[in-house]
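Exercise 7. Given the components listed, write out the predicted structure of the assembled complex. Treat all entries as one system.
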Amino acid sequence: MTGPTVSLFVTCMVDQLYPEIGVAAANVLERLGLEVDVPTDQTCCGQPAYNSGFRKEARAIAGRFLEVFEGDDDRPIVVPSGSCGAMVRNLYPELFHDDPRMLERARAAGRRVYEFSEFIVDRLGRSDLGGTLAGSAVYHECCHLLRELHVDRQPKTLLRDVRKLEMRPLEKAEVCCGFGGTFAIKFPEISTAIMVEKLRNVAASGADMLIAGDAGCLMHLDGGMRKRGMKVRALHYAQVLDLATRSSAGGRAS
Amino acid sequence: MQVKTAAFKASARRTLADPVLQGALENVYTGFHLKRIQAAAATDQWQPQRDRARRVKAHTVANLDHYLDMLTRNVEAKGGHVRFAADGQEAARYVVELAKARGVGTVIKSKSMVSEEIGLNHVLEQASIEPIETDLGEYIIQLARETPYHIIAPAIHKTQDQVADLLSAHTGGQRGRTAQELTATARVLLRDAFQRADMGVTGVNFAVAETGSIVLVTNEGNGRMCTSAPRIHVALMGMEKVVPSMADLAMFLRILIRSATGQRISTYVSVINGPRGADDEDGPDEFHLVIVDNNRHRLLADAALREALYCIRCGACMNACPVYRKVGGHSYGWVYPGPIGAVVSPVMSGLEAGKALPFASSLCGACREVCPVGIDIPSMLLHLRSVVVEGGPGGEAPRPASAGAAGGRCEPARPPVGRSVADRLAFAAWRFGMAGRRKFDLGARLAWLVGLPVARGGWAGWLPPPLRGWTASRRFRMPARRSFVARWRAARRGRAV
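Answer.
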């Protein structure tokens, strides 16, 4: 039996660079009894262009996102990313502020968008998913998740309730990791200096895993850790929850 | 002040490579940011006060011409003189001409960022008038011939040893190196300046329209010396510093001081009401208030930037900023560094030269989170990025009638100043690739294929520009062989059968 249907927007980065995060998110949602719908025409929310000042290009792709995901006004759109979720919910209204028709469509989409952990904890009212995963971990607070969507309690609650997972405190967990999208490419030295401080704090925790909620930050931090030979595993919390619940429920093979 | 905003990247690189500066910048987090957090947590009704402060600022800035006229009338009623200066040159010239006319040889100064904007010390020196900074931090950077590193802690980048060397060089002898000895030395030197100066120049933290009062917030007492000992007091204020009433002032003092240093109240808060009255025991014979525009009207004319004028200059955004804490204050290249500086410095000093500043942010939002008046700095940075790339519309900024010019001041539309060919090509390609699922998949598979020779375990250790900077310090994640959607489709087909 399946419950209500949700649409999954995995984001362009997860889609092409981290498909395993998308698979994990879908698995967890299905184990929670939801019917997962993946609009296979999806690409990007438009954030890279918006953040770079190319609003015309951003509007074109944001408009396309709206087309792809429109249809059922009651169906939640679940996004395993604070940044892309914030783009749709918080920044689309600004992007379309001078186009009333598009603005209305953008607001309607914004009302349907939920970040992955926010959907599970706030909308479904679940926190203990009954999983087990042995190891120690720290949680990095991705900026847009924390300061655009104000989501921090939800992922921490979900992780707290995973058995045998020891969550350790991370010094300056709320400080940016230095990714910032095109910022990391335009200002690589500054981005790296901020990252190095974050990695130092991760290393000081002695944890085996670094958990976060945005693939961009994870790519940046994991890329830095691999370059430095650090043996910490970087994971999205959708992956942690998928791994933790895999044995106790009939997950879909990927 | 000389505009060096175009050198942001090079200056940032130098700062990143300087271990002394990096060590000093650590103090910004512990010494200011964490203290602000504690102060905010210990304050009743913190959030409602911020909301109210924002509403008052929004109202005041929307009616700036009205409140500046009210302020002008009330300062003049108390015997003060008011001058509205359209730009920095006009403001500096007014002060210098006044000093010359009154035979002033030495000017003592209390902290003023507007005086940095207008390069007042330089202009005074050229007229053979000696300016002496009396805020200890400002005094140190004056000795070092530098500009402030931070708007409330101008010498935060200087170590105790560097300060000792500067004072020793200035006095021509070894003066001791402990903090107490250094402070005592500066105290003696400044005491002499307080006694012989004929003019005191100060900034203005707030100007109260309904009473014509100007307000100074200081910790060292030097502000009081500058406003009471010399026979002339000149106060320089940015035109956005006006607040309507004394009741508003009380609230602004609470949030300014807590946000700046984490103190509940500064050591001194001075409310100055014009020159010495008949019954006053001390105070200057003359009081002059110079209200400075200096391209603030550009912020006023652009609805998307207007709230930058709500800024009360507490510095909390720079203390919270991960970028400021790495690149330091001088990299921003003009008077105002950090997140608010990345907005106001390029707009006020020239967007073409300063076009890198709005991009030099990870958009983490820490600045907006701590801003006592809730300025949405990330949104303004995003707006400025679009103005740099696509240009921006013009707008109208009202001016006070007392400025001498009736009616609004029109700002012309802005042309794009930073549309690089590489960026245009990149985003044209991006738009093409994101406009259809097949193109998207094809592009990613091409990247996967091209990356095969350099990728190990899905990560590339080296990539050509524009990703070379990335791979210098990080590996880059290459596209997967199959996208999520492709996997999903395959799995669904499997299940359907």
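Discussion: Chain A has two domains: 5-122, 132-246. The mean pLDDT of chain A is 95.
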